[in-house]
Every structure is written in C-alpha cells, then in structure tokens.
C-alpha cells in the first residue's frame, strides 16, 4: 500500500521553511477515509478514522499539546473533536501496546508505512524519531463529508507549532455490480457494523462472515462438534463479479477440535482461538485457509476464505464470469465454525490491503423497508 502524508509546520504563526521535514502527520490508509451507512434511509454515516501518526524527526523535542479532528464539506467545517492534554496522555500511555501490535500484526497499520521500524512510539513529548498514534476515533453524521483535516498543536523550544494534514472522505461503495456469493437464505453474522470485530481491522473493515441458520435459530444442529452439524457446511460459493483468479489455495486441512466444545465457557474457548490465531499468523495465507482471490481491475479484489479442502474449482489465471462456482463453504484457516469470509480490498494480498464497502444487486434483507447497506446480524435472501 502506498502511504501519503501532508504536513504544514507553523512556528510563532509563520511558516518555518527550514523545519518542513521536522514533524509530520501520517494516515493509514492514506488514500481515502471511507464511511459506512448506519442508516441508509436517513443517510446517517459512520466514519472510523484512519490511524493517525504524529512523528517528530527533529533533534529538538516536540510536545503534543492537543489534536483537532475536523470533518469538512465543500470547505465548510461541520464536525470537530479536540483531544486535549489528558487525551494525548492517554494515547501516549498505550504506546508500548500499540507498537507491539504494529509489529505483530502489521497489516492493521499499513505494514511499516505508518510506523517505520526506526520510529518509537511515545508521547506526549516526542524526541527525535518518536511518534504518537491516534486510533479508534469514530464519527457519526448525516449525509456526506468530503475531507478529514487533522491539526496538531505542539511546542518546540517554547514556541508554538501547528501541523495540519488532510485526507479525502468517501461515502461510495466499490464500483462493481456485485452478486451475493451464496444462494438461498444466509445469515451475515459479522459485517461492517461497529459492534463486531471486522470494522476495527483494516483489510476486513467491510468484510462479511456468512453462515446459515436452522429452524432452531442456531447455525448448527445437535452439539455442533462436527463440521457436518453446521447448516452452511458444504454450501456452494460463487464469484461475486467477473475477473481473473490471482490466488487459489485448495489443500489446507480442517481441524474439528477448534470448534467450541459443549459446556466450554466463552473465555476458555476464545483463549484457544487466540492461541490458534497466533500460530496461523506465522504465514500470510494461514488465516485464510483454502481461499480464492479474484482481480476485478482498477485495484479491486475479492476474497473468499475458509473453503472446504479439495473443493476449489478454479485455478490461478482463470478468467471467470460473475456467478462462477468457486468452491464449497468450509472451516479451514482461522475459522471458529463453518462460514464464508468475503471481503473486497484494494490489493491482491488478503491481509496487506485496505477494505472496501460493497452493495449487492441481487438480494433483499429480511424486514428491511427498502434497499440498504448490510449490517451485522442481517438475514439475506438472494432474489
């Protein structure tokens, strides 16, 4: 991913041309900040701000006094949030944890482009090659905004310094006529809603985890200890749009011992899940299991993950039409139960990419009064 940044240095109210490389503001992702509808009918949008890094390259210490997060439309400032000294101190107190996460899960921070290997996270006082990262700031607003502006107030050698950087804001879906990747009736357990984990992870910010429900309202029959207990297991998975297959993995085994055991507590189960995830993260494709990635052109790629072993029907290099059978739904890779993980991203890597929101032309949502963006928990019916 290419990371862009813009910086304006003001000292004592005047631009200091000699300090133009002294401090900077970086974004991740850096091309655009994407919104997702909270309510399509009322045109209410949610915006999870990109990660923001304030970095000092100068020898002189730079103290971050306050950070202003501003949303603009047509040049008019409409929304603002000020992170004061106490907020900055709170962010600084998380620096060690954030640095460790950026090292162990770099895909959440645009690789090393936001936080280069020689940058140490600290604050509020930043010495040479130290930075402060702002994460998990959320805005909600009606209609659209077109620009995010970040202003940082600071001090160097007793003089006031202001940094400013902007990023475009977009409220559109990925430009393709998408078909839902399963047929019949499906359950979207996790979507782009803020109360499920996808939205907080860069490549899967708008991804869907898709399963099926039985008459009981559960995703499985019996005790759910076998893959065959799950209603979705073995379901056909189809290409959501035409494109070229750039990755196809078909030989990853499934492990039924990773399913939640009867009477196993949630805490105990997810401790096992995290242990397994750590092992899978040692290889880039480990979390995906058997999967297919399709290039749709214009830097748009779709991923179909956790497929059943030996079920993938396409090969790398195949040019396929929308609706082509790709394989069967399974539970390989980082999967807590049989489901399809579907995401659209800006790059061909399943992890090192920026997630993109999509809408589907062939579905209706149970109980929805009109067409709207999918949310976590929706029941989807393919027309």
Automatic annotation (TrEMBL):
Q: Which UniProt keywords apply?
A: Hydrolase
Query: What EC number(s) is this enzyme filed under?
Result: 3.4.24.-
Q: Which GO terms describe its molecular function?
A: hydrolase activity
Q: Does the keyword 4Fe-4S apply?
A: no
Which residue intervals define the domain M23ase beta-sheet core in the entry?
284-349
Note the superkingdom of the native organism: Bacteria
Task: Show the stretches that span the lipid bilayer.
Answer: none
Q: What is this protein called?
A: M23 family metallopeptidase
Species annotation? Steroidobacter flavus
Q: What phylogenetic lineage does the species belong to?
A: Bacteria, Pseudomonadati, Pseudomonadota, Gammaproteobacteria, Steroidobacterales
